[in-house]
Amino acid sequence: MRIIFCWDDGALQDQKLFALHEKYELPGMFFVPTSNREGREVLTPAMIRQARSPWVAFGGHTHSHVYLTQIPAEQIEPEISANQNYLQEVLGEPIAHFCLPGGKYKREMLPLLYRYFRTVRTADTMCFRNRGPLYRPALHFYPRGVKSLLGNALRNHSFPEARLVWARRREPYFTLLRELLQYEEPRNDAMVMIWGHSWEIEELQLWEELEALFALCSTRYRSCCIPYDAIDAAGGPAAL
Ligand SMILES: [Zn+2]
Fold this sequence. Notes:
The chain is of the alpha/beta class. It has a single domain, classed as Glycoside hydrolase/deacetylase (TIM Barrel, Alpha-Beta Barrel), CATH 3.20.20. 38% of the residues lie in helices and 13% in strands. The protein has nine helices and seven strands, in the order E-H-E-H-E-H-E-H-E-E-H-H-H-E-H-H. It has helices at residues 14-24, 45-51, 76-91, 110-116, 146-155, 159-167, 173-184, 198-203, 207-219; strands at 2-8, 28-32, 56-60, 97-99, 119-121, 139-140, 191-196. Strands 3-2-1-7-6 form a five-stranded parallel β-sheet. A two-stranded parallel sheet has the order 4-5. Helix 2 links the parallel strand 2 (28-32) and strand 3 (56-60). It is globular and about 45 Å long. The two termini are 25 Å apart. It binds zinc ion. The site of zinc ion (ZN) has 5 residues, from loops. One of its GO terms (biological process) is carbohydrate metabolic process. InterPro entries: Glyco_hydro/deAcase_b/a-brl (IPR011330), NODB_dom (IPR002509), Polysacch_Deacetylase (IPR051398).
């Protein structure tokens, strides 16, 4: 099993996540838009620069956090390139990874996205073995209902995981999350991408729950936790 943490939207509460990644020495990837048209404040260039560390890396998430399926085709390139340029200027290093706002895309957009980025990620859940050409996360750090977990598991061909969810359907979500990790642990081809939003964690006050997970990962699963940049080596998606 390989575990990868990633967080979307660059909300100000990401600063709490930075601190947790430093404290537990776990690598985390932060996908940050230049601004957020939903009105949520985003990290300033100074905050981004200050956070960069061996445990904290950054990726693109569009210029205005717009769903790429909701804009005319000719606006897609400016949305992704302006944000990539912005982050590259702030950090002075290449930005190679991208996350689709809302996970929304059409297949025909992918060649353009891969001209700018080495990897592209969705906002999926319950995908434990990537089938390509995108990276699809396995666990949303947000208490999803059983129906959502099962629907996503079946769509992502995660059949043993769907069975596990059904068998444990009365357990609290975060207990289930730990059981899924335990189930994947011996599986060499499993990539467990855990993602979420710091603003959701703040809204639902899930910080203690998250810290418990970090504590578990930094002890029991330490050797499984890899930086996002090592994602290809963790069993990448098929070529386009
Ligand atoms: Zn987002």
